[in-house]
Amino acid sequence: MSAHPELEQIHHRLTDLRNELLEHPVYQVLDTPERMRQFMQLHVYAVWDFMSLLKALQRELTCVTVPWVPSAQPEAARFINDIVIEEETDQLQNGGYASHFEMYLSAMEECGADVAEVGGLIAAVREGKTIAEALQTADVPEPARQFVQKTFDIIASGDVCAIASAFTFGREGLLPELFPQIVTRLHHENYPQFSQFKYYLDRHILLDGGEHGPMADRMLVHLCGNERERWRIVEETAVQALTVRKRLWDGILEAIDASAEMCERT
């Protein structure tokens, strides 16, 4: 399928925002194990809420209720189901299967990062609290809180084009370009305690860069067709997704800088 003109124009108009993320100074400060752990402790929330974004798309594009009925979007349904398999039950480094979120938690534990905060969020959600309540109960740091809340605001809109846009422009089409920056840092610093983290990053680069990104683009074309209003929603949501990602990166950088200043004073 050739690229849709509306999709091409959106990609072009998002170039500056994407470049701000690709050239963000946060990658340059990940030069000690402690700073890498700080990064992971905030980034993990984006790893977690990704699954809800994916599941929202699965709910919209496939039938997950009984009695079952066929999907009106079979190609999009196949794409989403393929991603669910890889995101929810991917191959572990040493055999077996786990979700990417669980892989990330294992990587955090391997390097000594604190998993208590994100564990508190999961516990609050299991108890039936709303997302806003769970974020507050778990005392999630503000940059991560804003990121997660925006994700769930998009999901709550119920607009499949908006959800697909956040999924495509904020995740599948973005992460294969962001994560190599972190992999390069891990190679440069040669941190032995981050092998599982590197595996997680490599898996995303392989899966998202090889197949998922182009398939996500095709999904948007199928969903939006030639409806200008749908494409307007796609672009508006894409800008929101990239903007809130930049705020998360800004927040991580500020947290690392604040810790460095505190160490200097002591």
From TrEMBL:
<dbReference type="InterPro" id="IPR024423">
    <property type="entry name" value="DUF3050"/>
</dbReference>
<dbReference type="InterPro" id="IPR016084">
    <property type="entry name" value="Haem_Oase-like_multi-hlx"/>
</dbReference>
<dbReference type="Pfam" id="PF11251">
    <property type="entry name" value="DUF3050"/>
</dbReference>
<protein>
    <recommendedName>
        <fullName>Heme oxygenase-like protein</fullName>
    </recommendedName>
</protein>
